Structures are given as structure tokens and as C-alpha cells.
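Exercise: predict the fold of this chain.
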Amino acid sequence: MQNGIDVELILFDPAGRKLAALDSPNGDKGPEPFVIEATAAGAYDLEVRPFVQPPPAGAGPTVTLPLPTEGRYEARLDEVLDADAYAERKARARIASPRLLEMWRAVRAKDQAALEKLWSERKGKGPIVEPYPGDPRDVLVTFVLRATAPYVGMLGGPDFSEKPLIRLAGSDIWYLTARMPADSRFDYSFIVADEPPPYRLPYRKERGPDARWNGRQPDPNNPLGPFGQSRVELPGAPPQPWIVAKPEVPKGKLAEIKLESAQLKEPRRVGIYTPPGYDPKRRYPLLIAFDGEAYGLDPGTLIPVPTILDNMIAAKQIPPIVAALVANQGTRERDLPGSAPFAAFVAKELVPRLRADYRVGLTPGETIVTGSSFGGLCSSYVALHHSDVIGNVLSQSGSYQWVLGSIGADLSPSVEGGWLIREYAAAPKRPIRFYLDAGRFEAILLDKNRHMRDVLVAKGYAVTYVEFSGGHDYGMWRGTISDGLLALLAKKP
């Protein structure tokens, strides 16, 4: 404790070797606390000296600074810990999960039987989920994997990026702990490799397959999930009541048509869903979904739009509706992120054909476009440029951060993203209603969805905006699409 004199401490080991010079930049008054960890037994010397400011750079060897002439200090030893107690304290400081702390104790005690018992309890349970102290809205989620490789990372979970796991010293257990909302639902996978991921330049087009992405593996304690990943649904995750087919619910019909597109200069597959009791003489609202293969056109679909519509119509949550599920046919990077020909195909070829054949979407207010990621971006793009045909946008995690023309290009990081947001800000207000959602784990995409929301609200658009506790995956979108349908189709009081 300094009182009128700034001191530094010099530490010497039992052999008299200088170990360190310690000083806190707090002037000549107040405490200078230190923790000293001895690595060998013996007597350590601590020498207290007045701290002397070094001469300015370039002042030369003849410049001297006066030493302090008066002042007092007090030295106090607060606590001495043995090695085990000190290790426990450090472990508690860096390991937030109580369950993982038990594993650490078993490792430190070399109690392999206790460690194996703790690990076997994880089978079929996935990550460790524990209460977050002091906030019931959140939980601690600890991802764990056993591996002998020099590096383990994780994809998914709290954000887009690959995140390194930490190894419990002296073991093959790797872990990562995150504070997460208790209503989270998300996918994740592990990467086991010889080294961390290489640095990649922003906006640089990667060529060839991504070996790390292709080599990802699910959690062996939680193997269920799409795309070789595992899925977590925390106890507070919102229910998804509409995605499962129910025997008692009347079923609509799904047929496939093929349009020869002059705009795209190719044929295009489109799945047509008609509701139970469809009457060709009656007019219906129209839902157009991009990435039709994922939205119900093909078997094993990720977002079962026909089933969702069957259930919601039967429950009288929405009126009977016809849906067009537009296949991307492997050309989504060409068509969805801002393609004028594709937008013209939707507005000038697809919708007129559906109006003529099915008596649907006869006005812009009765027509909805939807999609996820690029599909959400495309929905807003088509509506802005063809609001005489499209009057409703259901955007799921829309990629509003996108840099126009960046696919296949090597762009400077100075190129600004968010081009469609600026188009909406500059254009006159159109007669369009919006439902936007985005995941709290989606990093810059979440920020750009908030920006899009704010611009639309400032322009006077009707906007329903929802954030969910999840990432960029179909596990959330298959549930939130029903929220968008309710917002845009449910009868208003």
C-alpha cells in the first residue's frame, strides 16, 4: 500500500536469480496487489524499490532523474495457498460449468474411473446444460468432445464462425462454454484437425471444396441432426406445432409443373400445393417459396410447407392458400442474390401463369414471396422491383449484408454491403407489407436485418420483426415460417 511513494517489487528465486520486476501504473498512492506463483520450493526474496521513471527516448546516457526523497509503504501478505488449493481456484475462475469442473477434478486426481463415469453420463444428452447464475432467462451450455488431435473447433451454436475448444490439461477432453438464451434451438458440429483454420481474406472467393467444412463431424453424444450436424433444442425453445403431419388433418395436394422461361432461358420446376377442398372457381391467396427443394417440393424436405399449410388451415389460423414451390435447380447463387432476370421470371411469367391456371394471387395484396438467407434477400428484391405484382414479403434470415456482384469476385474489403437496404432507403415507398426474422446467433446478418427493419419503419412500411434464439439453419426457419404466415395472412380484428 503506497502512501506518497511509487514502488516496484523485484522478485528473486531461491537461487538468487531475478524472476520479475512488478509495478502497477497507479502513481504514488493506493494499493499494488500481486499474485506470485512459486514453481519450486524454497525461500523467495521480494525487494521493494522506489520506482524511477526511465529517461525519455533519445535523451542520452547523461540524463538522470532524481529519486523520491520521502514516502511510506506497507506490505501485507493476505493469503498463502498450497498447489492444490491454488489449482482449484484457477480452475474455478476459468471453468464456468460445475459439471465440467467435476471432470477437471477427476483428471487432476488421476481418477480415471470417476472421469469415465462422468463421461458415460453424457451419452445421448449432447452438451452440458446448466442454470446461469442470477438470470433465469439464460443457461450455460458447455460443448464437450474427446479427441487426441492437436486442435478441436466447433461450427454453429453461438455464431457463424469456427470457434476453438479448450483442452482440459492432462486429458483428451475439449470444451467450450457459452451463455445462451434458454429458448435456443440450433445446429452445431465439431472439426478435429491438426491446426486451427487458416486466415481468409474478407470477400475472397474460395476455390474448390472446403475440406474443413466437409470434414465436420456430429457430437457423438448427440448424433441426430441434418447435414452431418447435431441439433440442440433447449427446454425453453418455442414449440413448432405445425411441422408434423397429423392423421386427422385433411391433406392438400402437391403437383409439379414445368415452366419454359424466356427470362431465364431454361425450364423451371415448380411444385403447386392446393389446399383441401380446392375449388378452381374460387380465388385464393398465393405463397411463392424460393429454394423449393427445401420448402416441400422434394421428399425429406427441411421446411415441410404442404404439411404446415394443411395444419394451419385445419386449425383456422390462416385461410386456404395455394403455394408455388420454385426449385433452384442448382442456380441459387445466380438467381437469388439480386437477379433482375429471375425477378422478371417471377413477376412476368410465374405469377401470370398461376393466376390463369389456379385463380390465385390476383392482386399484390394476395401474393406473398418467401425464402431463407438468399431467399429472404430475393423476396425483398422482387417485391421492390415488382410491387405491382408482389405485395407481401416473408423474409427468413435474409442476407441483407450481401455485397452485390461478389460471387466469383475478389473484392476489396472497402466495398460496402447492404446494397438492397440502400435501395429501399432511396426508393419511394411501395405498397408492401413485411415479416422479417433473424437469429441472435447470426452476427453481421442479424445487424443488417435490424438495419433493414429500421429503414422500412422509417419509410412507413408495415413491418413485423422477430428475433429468435438460433442460428442460420432450417431447424428454426421451419418453425418461424408459420409466424410469418400468421402475421401476413391471419384475419385482423
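Check your answer against the key: The mean pLDDT is 91.
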